[in-house]
């Protein structure tokens, strides 16, 4: 059969060393650093046994920005940055719950990204106990760097995320401080979703989230492993 409309293109993230990674889904983890949960006024777990379940939400694959150019989004006057480790899955998960011990084998590689957030819409939704979608799953809300193969990243627990805006450090967090590490998050996701090659997982942000304004330049890095640079263009609605 012939398509009756033009098919939307698949987003492909460049891989360091060659090739590209076609994206299927984007999962995101909320409140995965205690210091960020605290700054958002959420309960902070005091032990692994006290963690409950992670908070998950999604973004559409076509929210990805590869060139760092982010037009200030419509519908908000409080766009926030959240620097995050991005995990890229290179294999389908087997049927059923994924073993934590096997979860790491699914990982193709890592990138650094921003989980851009319309904080005013999120606050309004939270205050009414409504879903967050409009605050998270919008166009251009997921700038990501190139992907680096897992073998070239090494031990994640020794790595840290740093976000600078206009040269000033806004966020810094060690991945050893994740409430749920990568295998644990993949296990928890597998209880809810079929995980497939092409899926990305944004792992949650450390403290220090704050506004991005038109003209701001951001520089996000996972130590010296991988870097994402970009800028906010356009104007704020109503400005
Ligand atoms: Mn986030």
Alpha-beta classification:
alpha+beta
CATH superfamily: Fumarylacetoacetase-like, C-terminal domain
The helical percent reads: 10-25%
Give the spatial strand order of the biggest sheet: 4-3-15-8-9-12
Count the domains.
Answer: 1
What is the CATH topology descriptor?
A: Fumarylacetoacetate hydrolase, domain 2
Number of extended strands: 18
Distance between the termini: 48 Å
Count, helices = 5
Q: Which CATH architecture?
A: Alpha-Beta Complex
CATH class: Alpha Beta
Question: Any idea what the shape is?
Answer: globular
Small-molecule binders: manganese (II) ion
Please state the average pLDDT score: 95
Radius of gyration: 17 Å
What does the model show?
The structure is a single chain. By secondary structure, the protein is of the alpha+beta class. It has a single domain, classed as Fumarylacetoacetase-like, C-terminal domain (Fumarylacetoacetate hydrolase, domain 2, Alpha-Beta Complex). It is about 15% helix and about 30% strand. The chain has helices at about 35-40, 100-105, 120-125, 135, 180-190; strands at about 10-15, 20, 25-30, 55-60, 65, 70, 80, 85-90, 105-115, 115-120, 140-145, 150, 160-165, 170-175, 200, 210, 215-220, 225-235. The chain has a six-stranded mixed beta sheet, with helices on one face. A five-stranded mixed beta sheet has the order 6-18-17-13-14, with no helix packed on it. A three-stranded antiparallel beta sheet has the order 10-7-16. The longest helix is centred in the middle third of the chain and has 9 residues, at about 120-125. The mean pLDDT is about 95. The site of manganese (II) ion has 6 residues, from loops. Manganese (II) ion (MN) binds near residues 82, 115 and 204.
